[in-house]
Amino acid sequence: MRSWIEKSQRFLEIPLGVGSRALVLAALVLLLPCYLFPLYDMTMFAPQYPDGLRLHIYSYRLEGGNRGQDVKEINVLNHYIGMKDLSAADFTEFHWIPFVVGALALLLLRSAALGTMTSLVDIVVLYAYFSLFSLWSFAHKLYVYGHNLAPTAAVKVPPFTPPLVGSKQLANFEVYSFPGPASYALAAVALVLAGSVLLAWRESRIQVRDSRAAA
Predict the structure, then answer these.
(1) Arithmetic mean of pLDDT, 51-71
(2) Does any domain span residue 7?
(3) Overall number of domains in the chain
(4) HSE-up of residue 199 (Cα within 13 Å, Cβ side)
(5) Collapsing DSSP states into helix, strand and coil, what is residue 86?
């Protein structure tokens, strides 16, 4: 146990080299698409909608296709099956996701400036928690929308969950849901941070090896 603690302490004391710091800054840049592009894109096709109804979910707003008209059309259809209207006010994620992304950006700058493995590991742990919680929150939102159906609806459909990723047949609609550009950028952040940790660890191993060889 003591040996493991000592190894952990040595690992956390590893300094970040130029390459590792550059990767941290690259991760910072990859956070920007979260404010510019959708996190998720959903498209619904039906015989009466051959061109599809589109819904783009950003980190801070909902946007419908056809200059926003698709959201209104989707809500009309939802009314018939007893589903609650899609409203930005119901998405609490729009309030905290942009704030958390901004906080992560500041922590990435701090990590690049301090140049320590401790600060980088802190970021990795927080980012993993943020990613998993955000994914769960979105999945839970889809479940709630599809299961809290009004019993007085004109059209009766069994409770359902829209697809998180992929496609699903819902009544006469084929629903497609896929991550948007912002989600791919956030996934790239995780890979870049993992690469930064690995690079810093590898550089420290090389330094230890060279120092032993010189001795």
Answers:
(1) 92
(2) no
(3) 1
(4) 18
(5) coil
CATH assignment of the domain containing 53: 1.20.140
Query: Residues 70-96: pLDDT tens digits?
Result: 999 999 888 888 888 888 888 889 999
Q: Across residues 154-178, what is the average pLDDT? A: 88
50's CB contacts (< 8 A; 6+ apart) are none
- Report the predicted TM-score, pTM, of the whole model to 2 decimal places: 0.89
Label residue 120 by pLDDT band (50, 70, 90).
very high
Rounded to the nearest 10 degrees, how much is the dihedral formed by the CA atoms of 194, 109, 92, 59? -70
Nearest to 44 by CA among 36, 34, 58, 55: 55
Residue 12 lies in a domain: no
Q: Which residue do the tokens 């839970």 mark?
A: 140
Phi and psi dihedrals of 52, rounded to 5?
Answer: 85, 150
Is residue 51, in this structure, part of any structural domain at all? yes
DSSP string, 132-192: HHHHHHHHHHHHHHHH---TT-SS--------SSEEEEETTEEEEEEE-HHHHHHHHHHHH
User: For residue 168, what are the domain limits?
Assistant: 17-214
Do residues 101 and 31 make contact, with C-beta atoms less than 8 angstroms apart?
yes
Say if residue 123's pLDDT is above 80.
yes
